[in-house]
Amino acid sequence: MVLKMTEIAIVGGSGYTGGELIRILEKHPHVDIKYITSRKYADVPIEKVHPNIRDLNLIFQDLNPKELDVDVVFTATPHGASMKIVPEILETGAKVIDLSGDYRFKDMATYEKWYGMDHIAPLKAVYGLPEIYREDIKKADLVANPGCFPTGAILATLPLSKEKLVDNVIIDSKTGISGGGVTPAENFHFPNCSDNVIPYNLTSHRHMPEIQQELGLYSKIKVSFTPHLVPVIRGILTTSHSFLNIYDSSDIESKKEYLLNLYKKQYKNEPFVKVLENGEIPTLNAVRGSNFGHIGGFEIDENGRLVIISAIDNLVKGASGQAIHNMNLICGFKENEALESYGMRP
Ligand SMILES: NC(=O)C1=CN([C@@H]2O[C@H](COP(=O)(O)OP(=O)(O)OC[C@H]3O[C@@H](n4cnc5c(N)ncnc54)[C@H](OP(=O)(O)O)[C@@H]3O)[C@@H](O)[C@H]2O)C=CC1
Ligand SMILES: CC(=O)N[C@@H](CCC(=O)OP(=O)(O)O)C(=O)O
């Protein structure tokens, strides 16, 4: 039973994921937003930065992590920055949900190799993908919220790895521009990204080892990953390509049915994963603004290539919505509290 309002703080509240945390949490019946921090906008009302969120009478504050006397802190800060503040916040007794990559890796050498920096404060954390770690999240002090690409990729491929159906998977993802955060970069300049598709980090994106870490827990699957920037504001559409170990060209329809049933079984009790049937193919604008992930496709071509598609909103299921799902689990709230809304379409 919930006895009192849960007090929360958002560190890095001026960023895109910070704005989404405020937008969603403001409607949460058991949560009181006590602090929203920003170094750049200290003493500025939040609507100056997030003009979609009005009348909350909240101002950004530039606070020391030790001053955050709340129950739960969301650190919506870049990797490298989170590791400098998370240990101090944990010392206050607050639970921490970190949205950066700093605590997602079980192996520090992998983190240091792919993020190109030393980890100054390794800590035990639970990987915050509720579809895999629900029970561990409920007991966690520190949750490492998954990366946006890994969320879509892992959901689209997990049953294949669990059943050892494929040896290699190619994850091809298209991402909206908000994935890059508020800091301008050349690719995000309007004339560069509009009317364009920009592949990047073809074989070297730091989300590849994260996807590998999680899918590799069940089989010897090898993950390849390439992201593409597409001219949309939010959303990640992922195509998971793989060749079935068990493939022979007979009876493709019954193999497709088997796979669909496998995914339906995997996600049947999941509040935010919808497995689309009858050949329906996920699209971005069906999930935009929502915490839902859609999975569909389940086609097999004549060469035995299996194609599964997932769609998520990078800022919601890929970041802030998933972080709030994790908070709901930690605090014993209804899992979908404040997260029930469907996507915005068109
Ligand atoms: N955008 C996305 O789709 C996703 C983002 N993430 C991750 O979530 C985190 C936040 O992302 P996002 O909101 O997009 O990022 P933004 O760049 O939009 O915002 C991050 C905020 O953190 C603050 N900040 C920056 N550097 C530091 C620092 N050294 N110390 C303290 N605060 C700092 C800034 O606020 P100020 O300068 O005002 O203090 C900034 O507004 C990142 O780790 C990102 O990789 C994860 C999944 C998806
Ligand atoms: C479009 C764009 O630049 N996307 C970012 C998404 C990364 C992100 O948000 O990083 P974490 O989830 O690891 O924190 C990128 O590819 O680096």
From TrEMBL:
Keyword Oxidoreductase on entry: yes
Iron-sulfur in keyword set: no
Positions of the Semialdehyde dehydrogenase NAD-binding domain: 7-140
Catalytic activity line of the entry: N-acetyl-L-glutamate 5-semialdehyde + phosphate + NADP(+) = N-acetyl-L-glutamyl 5-phosphate + NADPH + H(+)
Transmembrane segments: none
Domain of life: Archaea
Pfam hit, one: Semialdhyde_dh
Listed EC numbers: 1.2.1.38
Compartments in which it is found: Cytoplasm
Main location: cytoplasm
InterPro entries, per database record: AGPR, AGPR_dimerisation_dom, AGPR_type-1, NAD(P)-bd_dom_sf, Semialdehyde_DH_NAD-bd
Protein keywords: Amino-acid biosynthesis, Arginine biosynthesis, Cytoplasm, NADP, Oxidoreductase
One Gene Ontology term of the molecular function aspect: NAD binding
GO BP annotations listed: L-arginine biosynthetic process
Job description of the protein: Catalyzes the NADPH-dependent reduction of N-acetyl-5-glutamyl phosphate to yield N-acetyl-L-glutamate 5-semialdehyde.
Protein name, per record: N-acetyl-gamma-glutamyl-phosphate reductase
Naturally occurring in which organism (per UniProt): Methanobrevibacter cuticularis
